[in-house]
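Rotation project, supervised by the postdoc (A.L.). Task for the rotation student: set up a whole-complex structure prediction and record inputs and outputs verbatim in this book. Inputs entered:
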Amino acid sequence: MEPRAVRVGLRAASTVVMLFLYLPLAVIVLQAFSASKIPGWPIGDYSTRWFRLAWNDHFARTAFENSVTVGLRASALALVLGSCVAFALSRFRFFGQNTVSLLFVLPIALPGIVTGLALLSTIDYLGITPSLWTVVAGHATFCIVVVFNNVVARLRRTSTSLEEASMDLGADGWQTFRHITLPSIATALVAGGLLAFALSFDEVVVTLFTAGSQQTLPLWIYNQFRLPNTAAEVNAVAVFVIALTAIPVYLAQRLMRDTGGIPGR
Amino acid sequence: MRKTYGDVVAVDRLDLEVGAGEFFTLLGPSGSGKTTTLRLIAGFELPTAGSVLLDGADVSRLPPYGRDVNTVFQDYALFPHMSVGDNVGYGLMVRRVPKKERAARVSEALEMVRLPGYEKRRPGQLSGGQRQRIALARALVNRPRVLLLDEPLGALDLKLREQMQIELKGIQKDVGITFLFVTHDQDEALTMSDRMAVFNDGRIEQAGTPAEVYESPATAFVAGFVGTSNLITGEVARAITGADGTFTVRPEKIHLAEPGDEPDPDRYSAEGIVSEVVYLGVNTRYIVQLAAGGELVVVQQNQATSSMQALAARGRQVRLVWDRHHNRPVGGADRKNEVKEIPA
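Outputs recorded:
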C-alpha cells in the first residue's frame, strides 16, 4: 500500500512543520494569559492582568501609535512608488529594463542589517535628524518591493487589449486609467498595501538603525525584554502584535485569491 | 503606407481605398500585415511612413480616442469588472452622453445584436458567441464612421461562425457603416465582402470583388490562398497550351473525360492517370498525374456518381478538359525573389 504510506508520511511531515512554525507562538499566547510574573510551566492561574497592564502602559501605547503611523506612511509611499515602477516596467520597453527590474527587487533580499547600516550612514552624511520619517524611508525600501511584485504580477495577467479597447471607445489616458486600469489592479494594490503594512509593523533591524528617540512597538518589546520582570507584559503585547499582523496578511491572501485572475476577455 | 518594427517590415507600400458603406475584407495568412494595417487605422500603431485618411482628413497622428473609428477585438476585450450594459455604454459614458439617452442607445444596440435585456449580466456569464455580439454592440453603439473587426469570428465553432457571418453582413447592411474585416479564412472573405484585399508578406497582392479575386487571381499566391488552384508552369504549360507562362485553373473547372476524345478548339486537354481519389460527400477530389509531367487536382460534383463509382476511378487513364478562358495567366511566380528586401 504505497500511496497510503506516502499519504501518512506527508501528513506527518506537514504536522511537524506546522508545530515547528506555530508552537513558539502558542507558547507566547499561553504565557500571556498566565497570572504568574515569571513565565514558567505549568501555568498556574490564568488571568488577563498583563493585557490590562500593557493597555494602560503609556510607553507601550506611544510605541504602538508610532508603529501604526510608520506602517501607514511607509505603505502609502510604497503604493505610489511601487505601482509607478510596476507600470513603467511592464507597459514600456526600454534599455536596461531587466537590470532596473532586478535592482528594484534586490532590497528585499539584502540583509536588514546592511540596509539599516547603509541608511544610517546616509542619514548621518546628509545631516538629517533621525525621526519617524527616517524610519518610514527605511521601511519603504522593502515595502516598495512587495507592492511592486503584486502589481507587476497583476499587470502581467491583465490583457493590454482592455486598455486599447477603452481608448478605442473614446476614453483618453486618464479616463482609461480611472475606469479600466485602476479597477483591474485595485485588489493587487490593496493586497500589496496590507502586506507592506504588516512587514513594516513588525520590522526591528532597519528600525533600530534609522529610529531617533521615538520607539516603534517592536523596538519597545526588544528594549523591554532586557529589563527584569517585564516578560509577562511583553507577552501580552506580543499576542496583540501577532493578531494585528495576521489579519492584514490573511486579508491580502484572500484578495489575491478571490479576484486574482481578471482575464482579458 | 509603411510600418516597420526595427528591422522587420510589417506593412509595405500599402495603398488602399475603401468606399463609404462598404464591407471590405483584409484576407491573408497570419503575419501578412493585415492586423497591423487594422491597428494603424485604429491608431494603436503609428505609420513609419504614409498616412491614414478618414473622409479626406489625415488622422495618422491622432490618438485612438481622437478617431471616429471603433474596433471589435479578436479576444473581444470586454471589461470584466463591468456589466454588459456598462460595457456597451462605455463609449457613450466617456463622451458624456446623458444617462437617459445612453440607456436607450444601449438597449437599442443590444436589440440589434439580438441580446435584448442583457444589460445586467456580467461578461463572465456569457458564452463565446454572446460575448462576440456584445463586443459588436459596444462598438456600434458609438455609430463610428468605420468599424474595424479583427478576426472576430475566429474563436467561434463552425456552425456559430457561419450563422454570425450572415448576421454580421445583415447588421452591416442595416447600419450602413463601413466595415473593415480582417480574417485568414477565405470562405469568410468570399461570403461576406463587397470587396476584399489579399495580403501577403506585408503587401496587397490583389484587391477586388470576391468574384474577381476568385475568378481571376492576379498572382500565384492569390490563386493558392483563395480557394485551391492548380498552377501550371514551364514545360507542362508549354505542352498543354503551346505557350510560355504560368497559368492557374480551378479544380472545379476541369472535367474528366474518356481518353481519345476529339479536342474542342476552345478547350485545353491533357491526359493522365488518376493517382488518388478523395470522396468528400458533395464532391469528389481526383488527383491526376499528367503524362506531360506534374499533377492536377480535379473536383467533380457527385451529381450522378456514387461513392463506389468515384473510388473506382483510381488508376484509370483519363483525359482532362477545360475551357480556355478558365486558364488564367498569373504574373510573378518568382515575384518573391524580385521584391525581397534585405533590411539594413
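Student's summary: Residues 333-344 of chain B have pLDDT under 50 and may be disordered.
Supervisor addendum: The domain at 3-225 of chain B is CATH 3.40.50.300 (Rossmann fold).
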